[in-house]
Design brief:
38% helix; 4-stranded antiparallel β-sheet; binds magnesium ion; binds adenosine-5'-triphosphate; alpha/beta; 6-stranded mixed β-sheet
Length: 256
């Protein structure tokens, strides 16, 4: 399903509230690849995710983003979703009157571009909820209403499994997940990766990075990708306990 899909971000610049936050981001994700984005608080990781989602508060001031061969920035958020882009915080709003189940069926139909019978949908939903160890009653709750952090994350994982996107962008930063939930996220990432869903995961948790076994690790610093590599960057970060070494190496021209 993810054939040929890839994300190519070139010299992307963006402002929020008149302030430049993204200062020339370059990043390429091949189809089905797993990438992790690390970086200090405030370096622009969530901003990048919001810009890719098309959030109205963010103004793109330069550069380009190509996804599945199309100019992503020219598309509306729902068109981006139909192309196979999934953003974990895409639907953070509480929607009274819309249940988890109804929402998901609409989302599946919207991305597939065709009706899904109740019978087929129920089967799909039951299977994925079992995988995620979710109680069946959860499907009848109103979307995001009173969800705990863990329930919100489970619901996102349910959407991911049901939608099977070409590329999922997960911004974990504020989720405060316990060890078990982090494991669950990593498991879903690995399961979907085997069906060729690509991932860009923003995280501060070393265990998430290790469990999802990314092929690429990037470190963001002051609105740019300062360094890219593999898991050795995580090792180094664990040993150094700060991003100062990245800053130093960048200023000495040792990378890029
Ligand atoms: N709506 C906004 N108004 C003003 N400043 C903003 C807004 N959104 C983001 N910023 C600023 O942009 C900068 C980057 O924020 P961003 O949330 O992208 O960082 P981050 O790398 O995701 O950090 P964290 O690891 O803490 O989640 C911060 O200085 C933040 O205060
Ligand atoms: Mg963030």
């Amino acid at each position: 399903m993810a054939d040929g899909a890839e994300l190519v971000i070139r010299d992307l610049r963006a402002t929020v509230a008149g302030k430049e936050i993204l200062k020339g981001v370059n990043l390429t994700l091949g189809a089905g690849e797993r990438h992790v984005l690390l970086g200090a608080n405030g370096s622009g990781k969530s901003t990048l995710a919001y810009v890719l989602m098309g959030h109205p508060n963010y103004t793109v001031t330069g550069g380009s983003v190509e996804f599945a061969g199309q100019d992503l920035l020219a598309l509306e958020p729902d068109e981006r979703a139909r192309l196979g882009l999934f953003l974990a915080f895409q639907y953070p709003k509480e929607i009274t009157g819309v249940t988890v189940s109804n929402f998901l069926r609409t989302a599946v139909e919207a991305t597939r571009g065709e009706k899904v019978s109740l019978r087929e949908f129920s089967k799909l939903l039951t299977g994925h909820m079992a995988t995620l160890e979710m109680q069946p009653e959860f499907a009848r709750r109103y979307l995001n209403e009173g969800f705990s952090g863990g329930e919100r994350k489970r619901n996102e994982m349910l959407q991911l499994l049901a939608l099977q996107p070409k590329l999922a962008i997960l911004d974990e930063t504020d989720s405060g997940l316990d060890v078990q939930m982090r494991q669950l996220v990593a498991n879903v990432v690995r399961e979907l990766a085997s069906s060729n869903t690509g991932f860009l995961v923003v995280t501060h948790y070393e265990d998430v990075v290790r469990q999802m076994q990314p092929q690429h690790v990037h470190i963001m610093l002051d609105g740019r990708i300062a360094m890219s590599g593999g898991l050795e960057l995580v090792e180094r970060l664990g040993a150094e306990k700060s991003f100062d070494w990245v800053r130093e190496e960048v200023s000495h021209g040792a990378v890029n």
